């Protein structure tokens, strides 16, 4: 039994997604650093800039000749990445404000390509200018959710720096994990066990222990799903600093994490998926030619299976969930049609909470407004299905309505194939109901 109104209950609820809806908001490094600072955790001094001139001013202000310019793009492995221009590395160690300006110019508004970014790369929307610290030891520390034990877990390694995935592969013994008992949090005993794995000198251990406890406090209070510090550094002066931080937050908790939500940089996300999320829709792009509008993750899977069974390939699927209105259905259609290769649309709705007549209304409006010239096959079942059918029939639109899944799937595959072939040879086809 989960106690009411407790932190524990909320952690439990947010960490066990029953549905494929868990989204993780990610923050730019400079925002993450500011958040860590709020918790009294050591981070290098610095500030973010949107232009090379601003970057220069920050460098002057920092009044140091040992500086780092860091590309702010939501991807990991920036140090080993490169830009579309051929310019190397998203993390540059520099030694003058002039150099800061020059390097910032090479990074800002260019695409940073890393192991994690995909071939297209991520646009650099800001640069983070920080004081350069000299490392005695670089370690790795993260707090993540352990799905097996259903608790938060600390992952720690003395082999920090760039490539923790490589360490995991080649030297897995160098990585240690510790489950956190959510009723106790990170106790001094646990913090001391973890700190002992960092490879730090005895002088740095007390601050390391303190940092570990504060990181967990931040993790729990901010509804984070992940905090990754790589490197967690002991400087030559035995100071413990988070040199790089990556956060993930549970989107379902953002209603009570207003400042975290306000730090979102939507320019770093897929614009179609952002539009979908705004309307409470889940949109996933695939590589076939049949667009799918469904409700519920289970039905989405079944829909894709049955399309494949009849020899077709889904282009995407859009899960409109339970709260769909005619307006969100129209948005859904627009999203499905963002991909030019869609040659047919399959609407598969099982009306429980969602009303079939709302879906029909949205469908009709979309077909009208978007001047659809590809076939729509709709299989509607459940709440208000009679009303929905009536609406479709009276609309005068060519919407193929079905009650059975098999015949509907067969039809949509058949029609999309015809359109696909016609497109390939450059002829227009019309189809009769
Ligand atoms: P990532 O490649 O995206 O993980 O970016 P990081 O912020 O981790 O930077 C890559 C690497 O640059 C780090 O692992 C450090 O080795 C190095 N680096 C970054 N900032 C500093 C700094 O202030 N001092 C020193 N000595 N190295 C730094
Ligand atoms: Mn890093």
UniProtKB/TrEMBL annotation:
Catalyses which reaction(s): succinate + ATP + CoA = succinyl-CoA + ADP + phosphate
Co-factor(s): Mg(2+)
This protein's GO CC annotations: mitochondrion; succinate-CoA ligase complex
Name of the top EC class for this enzyme: ligase
EC number: 6.2.1.5
GO molecular function, a single term: magnesium ion binding
Binding site for Mg(2+): 230, 244
Pathway(s) served: Carbohydrate metabolism; tricarboxylic acid cycle; succinate from succinyl-CoA (ligase route): step 1/1
PROSITE patterns in the cross-refs: ATP_GRASP (PS50975), SUCCINYL_COA_LIG_3 (PS01217)
GO biological process terms on file: succinyl-CoA metabolic process; tricarboxylic acid cycle
Domain ATP-grasp: 33-260
InterPro entries, A to Z: ATP-grasp, ATP-grasp_succ-CoA_synth-type, ATP_grasp_subdomain_1, Succ-CoA_synthase_bsu_CS, SUCC_ACL_C, Succ_CoA_ligase-like_bsu, Succinyl-CoA_synth-like
Cofactor: how and how many bound: Binds 1 Mg(2+) ion per subunit.
Residues engaged in binding substrate: 295, 352-354
Role: Succinyl-CoA synthetase functions in the citric acid cycle (TCA), coupling the hydrolysis of succinyl-CoA to the synthesis of ATP and thus represents the only step of substrate-level phosphorylation in the TCA. The beta subunit provides nucleotide specificity of the enzyme and binds the substrate succinate, while the binding sites for coenzyme A and phosphate are found in the alpha subunit.
Database matches in HAMAP family: Succ_CoA_beta
Subunit structure: Heterodimer of an alpha and a beta subunit. The beta subunit determines specificity for GTP.
NCBIfam families: PRK00696.1 (NF001913), sucCoAbeta (TIGR01016)
Family classification: Belongs to the succinate/malate CoA ligase beta subunit family.
Protein name: Succinate--CoA ligase [ADP-forming] subunit beta, mitochondrial
Species this chain originates from: Pachysolen tannophilus NRRL Y-2460
Lineage of the species this protein comes from: Eukaryota, Fungi, Dikarya, Ascomycota, Saccharomycotina
């Amino acid at each position: 039994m989960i106690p009411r109104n407790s932190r524990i209950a909320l952690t439990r609820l947010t960490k066990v997604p029953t549905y494929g809806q868990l989204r993780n908001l990610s923050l730019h490094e400079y925002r993450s650093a500011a958040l860590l600072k709020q918790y009294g955790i050591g981070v290098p001094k610095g500030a973010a800039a949107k232009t090379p001139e601003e970057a220069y001013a920050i460098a002057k202000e920092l009044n140091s000749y040992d500086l780092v310019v860091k590309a702010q793009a939501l991807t990991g492995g920036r140090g080993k990445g490169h830009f579309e221009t051929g310019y190397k590395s998203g993390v540059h160690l520099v030694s003058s404000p002039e150099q800061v300006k020059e390097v910032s110019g090479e990074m800002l508004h260019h695409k940073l390509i890393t192991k994690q970014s995909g071939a297209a790369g991520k646009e650099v929307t800001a640069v983070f200018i920080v004081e350069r610290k000299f490392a005695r030891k670089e370690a790795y520390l993260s707090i993540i959710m352990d799905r097996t034990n259903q608790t938060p877990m600390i992952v720690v390694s003395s082999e920090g720096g760039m490539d923790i995935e490589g360490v995991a592969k080649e030297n897995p013994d160098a990585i240690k994990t510790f489950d956190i008992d959510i009723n106790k949090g990170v106790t001094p005993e646990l913090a001391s066990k973890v700190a002992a794995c960092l490879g730090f000198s005895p002088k740095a251990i007390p601050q390391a222990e303190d940092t570990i406890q504060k990181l967990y406090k931040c993790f729990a209070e901010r509804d984070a799903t992940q905090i990754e510090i790589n490197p967690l550094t002991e400087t030559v002066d035995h100071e413990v600093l988070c040199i790089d931080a990556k956060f993930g937050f549970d989107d379902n908790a953002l209603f009570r994490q207003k400042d975290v939500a306000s730090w979102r940089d939507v320019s770093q996300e897929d614009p179609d998926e952002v539009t979908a999320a705004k309307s409470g829709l889940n949109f996933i792009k695939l590589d076939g030619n049949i667009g799918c509008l469904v409700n519920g993750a289970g039905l989405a899977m079944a829909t894709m299976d049955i399309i494949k069974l009849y020899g077709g390939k889904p282009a995407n699927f859009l899960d409109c969930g339970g709260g769909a209105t005619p307006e969100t259905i129209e948005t859904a259609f627009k999203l499905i049609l963002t991909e030019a290769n869609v040659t047919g649309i399959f609407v598969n709705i099982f009306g429980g909470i969602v009303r079939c007549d709302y879906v029909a209304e949205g469908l009709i409006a979309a077909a009208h407004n978007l001047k659809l010239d590809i076939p729509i096959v709709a299989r509607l079942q459940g709440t208000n299905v009679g009303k929905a059918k009536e609406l479709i029939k009276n609309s005068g639109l060519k919407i193929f309505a079905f009650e059975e899944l098999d015949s509907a799937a067969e039809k949509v595959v058949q029609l999309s194939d015809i359109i696909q072939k016609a497109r390939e040879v450059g002829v227009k086809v019309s189809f009769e109901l």
